[in-house]
Amino acid sequence: MPSETPESTNITIDELLEKFSSSSERQKRRLTTELESRSEDLRSLGPNLLNGFDQESDDWTFGWIFQILNRHQKQFLSDLLKKEPLPWFVTPSSNGIDYEPLQQSLLEERFEDSDRITSQTLRKLAGDGAVDRGYVYFSEVDGMDAQDLITLDRLWTAYSQGRFGFSAQARLLESLDERYDKLWPRIGWKLEGVWTRYPNAFTWSLEAPEGHMPLVNQLRGVRLMDAYMKHPFLKARKQKS
User: Fold this and answer.
1) 115-120: which pairs have CB atoms within 8 A and are 24 or more residues apart?
2) Who is most buried in 14, 73, 79, 223, counting CB within 10 A?
3) pTM for the structure as a whole
4) d(C-alpha 17, C-alpha 38), whole Å
């Protein structure tokens, strides 16, 4: 991650948080290391740290704050998350799916586990056939519930500094004139490894290329990925942002 920026030193934690939350995406990423170095100051704010937190958003300002606390102030984070109502991202589901294991996994930066949970969830959303066979057909994607797909995407966005998730992949694809042959090297995917997950094929950390996760089975071509990229939930996400 980038080294601390001179302009953010010697300011109060409140000023740094205001600067962080109001900056552009690029500027925020430049400030991530500086904010992490102030974990003691974040803890000193107590419950006031969550002032302005929109639980229905995908604001990675707070996703990163939670990850910093998990890295350096675990007891404080544990105490914070015991409060009622639970002060972290809400995760609605039209299918009764519990997204707490995914949120916990993303919070702890266990991205390989998070990817596996996401794959399992997508199979559930696709139906019993996908669950039984162990993978999703492209023709099943259109019938997936939009609310659940939005919840999945919000969590990936919030806990990846906005770098992972279907919406990040769609944004990159659009910037590359919908060229999948250009997208794969950009997000660090090797077609022969996307599904088999052979050792060292992926980078399971925030250091991975933008759009690197979640992974999608490409052994049968781009039709499955294309189905996700064209699902109406992404249009709804784009309009809301």
Assistant:
1) 115/204, 115/213, 115/214, 115/215, 118/152, 118/156, 118/214, 119/214, 119/215
2) 73
3) 0.92
4) 10
Q: Which residue has the tokens 């997208």?
A: 183
Residue among 50, 61, 157, 56 at smallest CA distance from 102: 157
Integer Cα distance of 50 and 18 in angstroms: 12
Cβ-proximal residues to 153 (8 Å cutoff; 6+ apart), any chain:
58, 165, 166, 167, 233, 234, 237
| CA–CA distance, 102 with 170 (Å, rounded to integer) | 21
| Of the options 1.10.10.1770, 3.30.70.20, 3.40.50.300, 3.40.190.150, the CATH number for the domain spanning 109-240 | 1.10.10.1770
DSSP alpha helices (H): ranges in the chain? 13-22, 25-36, 39-44, 60-72, 74-80, 100-107, 111-126, 128-133, 146-158, 166-175, 180-187, 223-229, 232-240
Write phi, then psi, for 102 (nearest 5 degrees).
-70, -45
pLDDT tens digits, one per residue of 68-109: 999 999 999 999 988 877 789 999 999 999 999 999 999 999
List the one residue out of 31, 39, 28 whose CA is nearest residue 6: 31
Query: What tokens appear for 44 in the block?
Result: 């000193």
User: Where exactly are the structural domains of the chain?
Assistant: 6-80, 109-240
